Amino acid sequence: MPRVLILSTTTGYQLRAFGESAERAGIDLIFATDRCHHLDDPWRDAAVAVRFHDEETSLAAIVAAARDRPIDGVLAVGDRPVVLAARAAAALGLAGNPPEAARASAHKQLARARFAAAGLPVPWFLELAPGADADPGVRFPCVVKPLGLSGSRGVIRADTVEDLRVAVGRVRRLLARRDVRVARTGLEERILIEGFIEGREFAVEGVLTHGVLKIFAIFDKPDPLDGPYFEETIYVTPSELPADGQAAVVAGVERAAAALGLTDGPLHAECRVGPGGVFVLEAAARPIGGLCAKALRFDAGAGRLAPLEEVLLRHAVGSDISAYVREPGAAGVMMIPIPKRGRLRGVDGLSDAVQVPGIEDIRITAKPDQMLEQLPEAGSYLGFIFARGLPREGVAAALKAAHARLRFRIDAALPVAAF
User: Fold this and answer.
1) pLDDT tens-digit profile of 44-89?
2) Total-model pTM
3) What is the pLDDT of residues 302-334, one digit of tens each?
4) Distance separating alpha carbons of residues 233 and 75, to the nearest angstrom
5) Contact partners, residue 164, CB within 8 Å, separation at least 6
6) Cα separation of 106 and 104, whole Å?
7) Cis peptide before 121 (omega within 30 of 0)
8) By CB count within 10 A, which of 207, 269, 279, 392 is most buried?
C-alpha cells in the first residue's frame, strides 16, 4: 500500500477529508503535525511531531520515521508546512518543489521580487522596517500586509497618510499578539506596503507535474474586494470570464509558478484582473484552504465522483491524473463571515438555510463559546456553505440566501481593565 506524508497544523480542516479519500484510494497516511515532541501521541494518530520553525530537527524526525514507514509522496496542507514539505520530499528522494521555491511562494516580498524579475506585472512594494514610520513618499491607495500571516489576516487598505498610520499601528499590534508570535515564523516584525490593484479577484486551483500545470478550476469571487479589509466570502466555478480572459489568467499563473521555481504538487493562486492586466497576488504550493475543497469534485469514471483530496493523493504517489476532470455544472462555497467580535453561543436557522434550493451542505466550524474576531484581526471563519446543481449565477444567489437565514448568537466581548 503506498503511503503519503501529510504535513499540517493540528487544526487543519482538511485532514478528515484526506483520511476518507486515502481509505477509498487504498493509500496509507502518515501525518507530521506541529506539536510538542515531549507529549506521547496525545491525539492517538501516530503523527510525527514537528515544529515548522525548527526545520532541521523536524526534517530529522521525518527521515527517521520514514525508515520504519517508507513514504511514497509528500503533501503540505496550509501555508506554514510548505517549506518543510519541500525539504522532506528532497531528503526522501520524492517528487516535490525545490525548497527555495517553496520558501519564496510563502513569502510575499520574495514572491513579488521574483515575479518582477520574470517580467510579470506587480504593484510597487516596499518593506517597512520594524518601528519605522511609513515613507512619506508612499502613493495612495496602498495596502498594508504582514509578511508572516496568510490569507487576508492583517491586510488593510489605506487611502490617506492618516489611514496608513492607523493601518500600520493596527498591524503591529496584531503582530505583537501571543497567538501570532507563538508561530515563530521569523517574520513577526515585517510589514509589506504595496500599491492597491484595481480589478476583480479570481482564484485558480491546479497541480504541477514536472513544471506542467494542470488546471482544476478557476473560481470567481463575485463580491468586490476593495477594502478597507479583504474578507473573502464566495467562490464560484466555472468562471464567467470569457475564454480569452481565462487563458490570460492561466498564463499568468503558469508564469508565476515558473518564476518562483515551483515544479511538483498542488498550486493555489490568487489573481486580480483589471485595467493593468493579470496580477498574480500569490502562487501557493498547497491546495485551497479550509473546507473550500468540497466545492470541487472530479469525474473518476464508472459514474463515481472523486473529491480534490483523492486526486491530490493519487498525484502524490505518482499516479496519472490526466483523466480527472471537474464535474460539469456550477458549484460554489461561502466562507461565512464573522458579523461581530464576541463569544459564539450558537447558530440558529440551519434547518431553514439548508432548504434553500441548490444548497448542498452547511458546516459550522467555529466552536460554542469560541471567541470570534472580525478581520483584519480574525484568523478563521464561522464555517462554510456549499451549493451546486444550479446555473452559475444561481449558485452565488443560493449561498447568499442560505446565509441570510442563519442567525448567529454572539455575546459581546467584555472589556478587560488594565491594573
Assistant:
1) 457 999 999 999 999 999 999 999 999 999 999 999 999 999 999 9
2) 0.94
3) 889 999 999 999 999 999 999 999 999 999 999
4) 26
5) 134, 138, 140, 142, 144, 158, 193
6) 5
7) no
8) 269
